[in-house]
């Protein structure tokens, strides 16, 4: 009987210990959750695949950093207007996307946290492509770490080339114009698809020594050198009649023009590869570096960085998030599916994009690409250029007259707000 009582008490004590332990674990769990620091991250909306991948990477971060929670917010409309308004009202997120085009203005406004003091030798800052990292430097300080990028490359329809007896992609712009004439009216309605936006014309302007803005940030695209590059587009459209812009064929993008076989060639970025593969799997295409102009290689590079709000309350934790997302492991997870190109050289090498048949021309271009930046007031530059350039493209006024007017209007707007 005594032994049975001892056994009973032993079991009861064991159960009590287990209950207390379980209760303490629950309290510890609640305490851990309640003391976790929340970092707010904002970005614009991407494709469902992109959003799913980012959420997976953020979940991995939280697993490795149990004391930090990430509240991810998608700003689906008027992204920069929303961010600027929140920065003024001191309600901006701790970490957010910043496009290179918008970076010069925000970097000059003392609203971003400089990041160089957070960087350790292990983070390996030298691993980033210089062209991309420099897009987020201002007065010798680093304000953003680029998360991914794309250059531009020539996409061409292999069946259309074969039908026209063309075996290799054009390597010069003169060849592209010749090919464009040969391809027009064959398997495709037009040989080439051109995007008249300024972001696709800068490398043509620079090929002849022209520039978009001067050292003081004012528009300077009406020079004779700049006009030489732009005249190529005007002549090909109005004289050759061998290329179309989006509105001519009822599409919303260069990728769609190409996918619908309205054009046989187009100059697009890395984003076109998954889009074409998924949406137009019947289109057989290849890529090549952008043809040289005036014997000079040229392309554009578009990049986005993670930046930290200078008013962030938990800067150490915000840095942990940025350093994870732009670190070697986080970046490899983010860019491993191929819809974005890694800004770290080591990650690009590990993923083999420099050897990828479709992506290698895009990777090669980063060494000589022009970053998509046009000073502190991009809206004034871009809007005035595009309004007048399209007018010249349609033959409504001479090119020089259009660009002089665009430059004058842009600079009047800049002087009014600077």
Automatic annotation (TrEMBL):
Any stretches that span the bilayer, and where are they?
A: none
Note the SUPFAM superfamilies from the entry: Periplasmic binding protein-like II
For this protein, the record's Pfam families field holds: SBP_bac_1 (PF01547)
Cross-referenced InterPro entries:
SBP
Keywords in alphabetical order: Signal, Transport
Q: What family does the Swiss-Prot or TrEMBL record give for this protein?
A: Belongs to the bacterial solute-binding protein 1 family.
The name of this protein is ABC transporter substrate-binding protein
Question: Which organism was this protein described from?
Answer: Nostoc paludosum FACHB-159
């Amino acid at each position: 009987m005594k032994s049975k009582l001892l056994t009973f008490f032993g079991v009861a004590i064991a159960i009590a210990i287990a209950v207390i332990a379980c209760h303490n674990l629950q309290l510890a769990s609640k305490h851990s959750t309640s003391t976790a620091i929340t970092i707010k991250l904002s970005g614009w909306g991407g494709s469902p695949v992109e959003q799913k991948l980012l959420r997976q990477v953020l979940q991995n971060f939280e697993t490795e950093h149990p004391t930090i929670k990430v509240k991810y917010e998608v700003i689906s409309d008027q992204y920069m207007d929303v961010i600027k308004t929140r920065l003024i009202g001191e309600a901006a997120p701790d970490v957010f996307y910043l496009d290179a085009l918008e970076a010069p203005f925000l970097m000059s406004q003392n609203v971003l946290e400089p990041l160089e003091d957070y960087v350790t030798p292990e983070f390996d800052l030298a691993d980033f492509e210089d062209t991309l990292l420099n897009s987020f430097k201002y007065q010798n300080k680093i304000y953003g770490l680029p998360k991914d990028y794309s250059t531009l490359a020539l996409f061409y329809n292999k069946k259309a080339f074969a039908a026209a007896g063309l075996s290799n992609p054009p390597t010069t712009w003169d060849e592209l114009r010749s090919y464009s004439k040969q391809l027009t009216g064959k398997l495709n309605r037009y040989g080439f698809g051109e995007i008249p936006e300024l972001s696709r014309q800068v490398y043509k302007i620079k090929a002849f020594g022209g520039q978009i803005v001067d050292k003081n940030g004012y528009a300077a695209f009406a020079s004779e050198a700049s006009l030489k590059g732009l005249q190529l587009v005007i002549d090909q459209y109005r004289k050759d009649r061998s290329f179309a812009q989006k509105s001519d064929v009822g599409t919303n993008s260069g990728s769609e023009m190409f996918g619908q076989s309205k054009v046989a060639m187009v100059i697009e970025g890395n984003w076109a590869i998954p889009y074409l593969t998924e949406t137009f799997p019947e289109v057989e295409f290849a890529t090549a570096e952008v043809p040289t102009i005036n014997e000079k290689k040229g392309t554009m590079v578009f990049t986005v960085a993670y930046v930290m709000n200078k008013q962030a309350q938990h800067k150490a934790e915000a840095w942990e998030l940025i350093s994870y997302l732009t670190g070697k492991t986080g970046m490899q997870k983010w860019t491993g599916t191929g819809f974005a190109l890694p800004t770290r050289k080591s990650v690009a090498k590990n993923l083999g994009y420099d050897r990828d048949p479709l992506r290698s021309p895009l990777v090669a271009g980063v060494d000589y690409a022009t970053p998509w930046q046009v000073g502190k007031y991009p809206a004034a530059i871009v809007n005035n250029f595009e309004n007048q350039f399209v007018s010249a493209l349609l033959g409504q006024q001479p090119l020089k007259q259009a660009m002089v007017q665009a430059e004058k209007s842009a600079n009047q707007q800049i002087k009014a707000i600077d």
